[in-house]
Amino acid sequence: MSRIEQTFAELKRRGKTGISAYLTVGFPKLDSTVPIAEAIVQAGADMLELGIPFSDPLADGATIQRTNQAALQNGVTLGACLDVCAQLRKRLPNTPLILMGYYNPIFAMGLEDFASRAAAAGADGVIVPDLPPDEAGPLLAATRPKGLDVIFLIAPTSTEHRIIQVAKASSGFVYCVSLTGVTGARADLASGLPEFLARVRKHSRLPLAVGFGVSTGDHVRAVGQHAEAVIVGSALMQAVESGGHAGAAQAAKAFIASLSQGATKGAAEARR
């Protein structure tokens, strides 16, 4: 079993909703990412998404755009992100590490080179928000032999045909976007989320993880009734911003601890 499969199996055994935490690598400084990551795993994060800074993160809202720009100004490259991944693998041997970034830097590095270096750094998977499954053949051909999961996104507006495509191409888990729009912390989850997740589950036996807008323990509790995990990015990066360089790890740890309060599932959800 891969680390991602092992993690979801353990979450099911414990009756817990998983928390996958996104960090922009190199924000607020390049040497910030490792201590922040270790702190949030201690606080209850089950998986880490290592955000590769990009100049035009089209799926992301203002918070992650700011953190991407700051990381680029700090000189963070895809190579630097792979170095951080390797550091984290040594420190967090059992935590899934997922590289999340847009296609241009990966393509520029070269798909085979990227896949080899990502696997050597201890990465478990890749999320590429701007790469649809029907154009992902070359990336899949490069990553699958290296044991890397490729995780695709499904939106509430996805057709049945698109859901089937994503379900067939994905491995590890399916990333379910909770709403139409870009990333960003929101007060309420979309009202149609349960119906959307039921549509996806008809076509995939993979775990479902819900992202975009998750920002409170109550959100985690609500999502956990219908999905195996939540993905939190913007609200976590807001906490990192609020802590500044010196207090970023502590602020991030406190935020993830607050989310973890909603992660224990009821008996019915845990049996799924």
Summary keywords:
272 residues, alpha/beta
Would you mind describing this structure in some detail?
The protein has 272 residues and is α/β, with parallel strands linked by helices. The protein has one domain: TIM Barrel. It has twelve helices and nine strands. A nine-stranded parallel β-sheet has the order 5-4-3-2-1-9-8-7-6. Helix 2 (33-43) runs parallel beside helix 11 (234-260) and helix 6 (111-120) runs parallel beside helix 7. The longest helix is centred in the last third of the chain and has 27 residues, at 234-260. It is globular and about 45 Å long. The two termini are 20 Å apart.
Topology, please?
Elements: H1 3-14, E1 18-24, H2 33-43, E2 47-51, H3 62-73, H4 78-91, E3 97-100, H5 103-109, H6 111-120, E4 125-127, H7 137-143, E5 149-151, E6 153-154, H8 160-169, E7 174-177, H9 193-201, E8 208-211, H10 217-223, E9 229-232, H11 234-260, H12 267-270
Strand order of the largest sheet: 5-4-3-2-1-9-8-7-6
Separation of termini? 20 Å
What name goes with the CATH superfamily?
A: Aldolase class I
Number of structural domains: 1
Please tell me how large the radius of gyration is.
Answer: 17 Å
Main CATH class: Alpha Beta
CATH architectural designation: Alpha-Beta Barrel
| Major sheet characteristics | 9 strands, parallel
Strand content: 5-15%
In short:
This protein is of the alpha/beta class and 272 residues long. It has helices spanning 3-14, 33-43, 62-73, 78-91, 103-109, 111-120, 137-143, 160-169, 193-201, 217-223, 234-260, 267-270, and strands spanning 18-24, 47-51, 97-100, 125-127, 149-151, 153-154, 174-177, 208-211, 229-232. Helix 2 packs across helix 4, helix 2 (33-43) runs parallel beside helix 11 and helix 6 runs parallel beside helix 7.
